[in-house]
Specification:
This protein has a single domain, classed as P-loop containing nucleotide triphosphate hydrolases (Rossmann fold). The chain is 53% helix and 12% strand. The radius of gyration is 17 Å and the shape is globular. By secondary structure, it is an alpha/beta fold. Bound molecules: thymidine-5'-diphosphate (TYD). Thymidine-5'-diphosphate binds next to helix 1 and helix 4.
Length: 215
Amino acid sequence: MNDHTAKGRFIAFEGGEGTGKSTQSQLLAGALRTLGKQVEVTREPGGTKGAEAIRELLLHPPGEGWNAQSEALLFAAARADHVARRIRPAIDNGVWVVCDRFVDSSRAYQGVAGGLGDDAITGLHAFGSHGLRPDCTLLLEVDEDRLAQRLAARDGEDSDAIGGRSIDYHRAVAAGFRSLAEADPDGFHIVDGTGTPDDVHARVMKLIGPMVDPA
Ligand code: TYD
């Protein structure tokens, strides 16, 4: 039975491209539904009409593209709409929200790899989204060689404006995620993303189990 009296929970998957976040979001949502939870799966940038329109601007920029500041502002604007119109209302209605990327992507990509620093990103998030944090963030990690293979298989030559950045940029993103997770061991779980989707899902469920009210 769905419990509409309790507040929902907010779980985010984070990690570089091709680490399996969207597959794991779907598998987790299915498992939570089986356990009687009402679940919404969403993603960033995106999740609302307005935020999906901003996603298109970010991933396929018109003209010469965005500078670092504009890019960070657009991600924060998309997130503000997503939080206000979808995530916050869902949580308040007892829905469990599973999100493929959230603010820690901005901290790792724009803050660390893009060089804007953490204060700028968390400041934008405080203004845009009242600093909302997931109850739990699952960081999926896959080693670089395996990642390069997965990306080549998935994107071929068609990567987007951010996915197509240099290997050094993506290395900085991965290091950024890891240091965010290490600095906040209560908020993050680092999950080994190697193996089959079911292998990874089993690791995720071990970590999420204690959050799920068995009643
Ligand atoms: P997407 O295709 O959704 O990611 P993935 O490749 O992991 O499936 O593309 C989103 C891109 O946007 C990805 O390159 C990460 C980037 N991004 C940021 O740079 N900052 C952010 O805050 C978010 C949410 C995403």
